C-alpha cells in the first residue's frame, strides 16, 4: 500500500498553528520525513547497523521519540539472537497506534510506551536512539535527559543522536538553509508549503550547533563522541559510554 502524500501545508492559511505530531501528521509522516530530511533513510538504516555492533545480550534498546518505529524496526533486523528488548517511547498516541499495527512484523519483543521521554526510567540500555527528537525539547531540559540516559546505559553502550543543526557562521547558516529548501523543492514541496511549515515549527523545533551537542554529550559523561553523518543542516552523532 502506497504512503499517503503530505499535503498538510499546500493550502494558504490565514493563521498557522504550532506543529504537532497529531493524527494528521501521523497519517502522512513517512512521506513527510523522507521528503524533508536529507539522508533520513541512511540514518535509519545505519541505526540498525550500529545496533548490530553495540547491542548486548540481556539489555534494552531504547527508541526515544520513536514516531512510527522506523529506527526500532531497523534495530530489530539485527537483534534476533541477542535476547534484547526494544523500548519504543513517544508522547503521540497517534504515532503509537500506527506503530502497534506493525508489531506483528517485529521478530524481537517491543514495549510501546506513551510518555514524555524525560519521564522514562532508562535501565540496562546498550543502545539508545534519539533520532530527531531532542530538537523538540526545551533546550534547558536537554542536559538532564542526556545525563539520565548516560546513567542508565551499560558500559560499552552507544547513544545515537540525530538532529537538525544550526551554524554559528551566518554564511554557512544561510547556505545550508537554502540547500535544505532546495532539497525540499526537489521533492515536490512548493514555496508555500515550505514557508507555512517553517512558521508552524517556529519555536517548536529549536536546533543547536554541533559544538553544543558535542559539549553536552561530554558533559553528560560520554568520553567518545563523533559526527558519523551530515548532510546540509542535518547530522547524526554517536556517543559511547566507556
Which key phrases capture this entry?
38% helix, 8 helices, single chain, 7 strands, globular, 242 residues
SSE layout and pairing:
Layout lengths: L22 H14 L3 H15 L5 E5 L5 H7 L8 E6 L2 H8 L9 E5 L10 E7 L10 H10 L1 E12 L5 H17 L4 H11 L8 H11 L3 E8 L2 E7 L2
Parallel strand pairs: 1-2, 1-4, 2-3, 4-5
Antiparallel strand pairs: 5-7, 6-7
Description:
This protein has 242 residues and is an alpha/beta fold. 38% of the residues lie in helices and 21% in strands. The protein contains eight helices and seven strands. A seven-stranded mixed sheet has the order 3-2-1-4-5-7-6, sandwiched between helices. Strand 1 (60-64), helix 3 and strand 2 form a beta-alpha-beta unit. The longest helix is centred in the C-terminal third of the chain and has 17 residues, at 170-186. The protein starts with 22 loop residues before the first helix and ends with a strand. The model has no long low-confidence stretch (mean pLDDT 97).
Query: Can you count the helices?
Result: 8
Question: Which regions contain 5 or more consecutive residues with pLDDT less than 50?
Answer: none
Mean pLDDT value:
97
* C-alpha-based Rg, rounded: 18 Å
> What string gives the helices and strands in order?
HHEHEHEEHEHHHEE
Coarse shape = globular
Q: Largest beta sheet, briefly?
A: 7 strands, mixed
The class by helix and strand makeup works out as alpha/beta
Helix content: 25-40%
Q: What is the strand arrangement across the widest sheet?
A: 3-2-1-4-5-7-6
Task: Give the N-terminus to C-terminus distance in angstroms.
Answer: 44 Å
Number of beta strands: 7
Question: What fraction of the residues are assigned to beta strands by DSSP?
Answer: 15-25%
Amino acid at each position: 500500500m502506497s504512503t499517503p502524500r503530505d499535503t498538510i501545508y499546500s493550502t494558504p492559511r490565514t493563521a498557522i498553528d504550532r506543529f504537532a505530531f497529531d493524527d494528521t501528521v501521523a497519517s502522512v509522516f513517512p512521506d513527510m520525513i523522507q521528503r524533508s530530511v536529507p539522508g533520513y533513510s541512511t540514518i535509519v538504516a545505519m541505526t540498525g547497523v550500529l545496533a548490530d555492533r553495540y547491542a548486548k545480550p540481556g539489555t534494552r534498546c531504547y527508541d526515544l521519540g520513536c514516531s512510527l518505529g522506523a529506527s526500532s524496526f531497523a534495530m530489530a533486523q539485527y537483534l534476533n539472537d541477542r535476547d534484547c528488548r526494544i523500548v519504543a517511547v513517544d508522547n503521540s498516541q497517534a504515532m503509537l497506534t500506527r506503530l502497534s499495527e506493525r508489531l506483528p512484523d517485529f521478530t524481537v519483543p517491543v514495549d510501546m510506551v506513551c510518555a514524555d521521554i524525560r519521564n522514562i526510567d532508562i535501565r540496562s540500555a546498550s543502545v539508545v536512539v534519539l533520532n530527531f527528537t531532542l530538537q523538540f525539547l526545551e533546550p534547558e531540559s536537554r542536559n538532564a535527559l542526556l545525563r539520565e540516559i548516560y546513567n542508565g546505559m551499560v558500559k560499552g553502550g552507544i547513544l545515537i543522536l540525530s538532529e537538525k543543526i544550526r551554524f554559528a557562521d551566518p554564511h554557512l547558516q544561510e547556505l545550508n538553509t537554502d540547500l535544505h529548501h532546495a532539497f525540499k523543492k526537489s521533492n515536490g514541496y512548493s514555496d508555500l508549503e515550505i514557508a507555512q511549515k517553517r512558521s508552524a515549527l517556529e519555536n517548536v523545533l529549536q536546533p543547536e550547533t554541533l559544538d553544543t551537542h558535542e559539549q553536552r554529550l561530554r558533559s553528560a559523561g560520554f568520553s567518545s563522541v563523533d559526527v558519523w553523518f551530515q548532510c546540509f543542516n542535518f547530522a547524526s552523532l554517536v556517543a559511547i559510554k566507556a
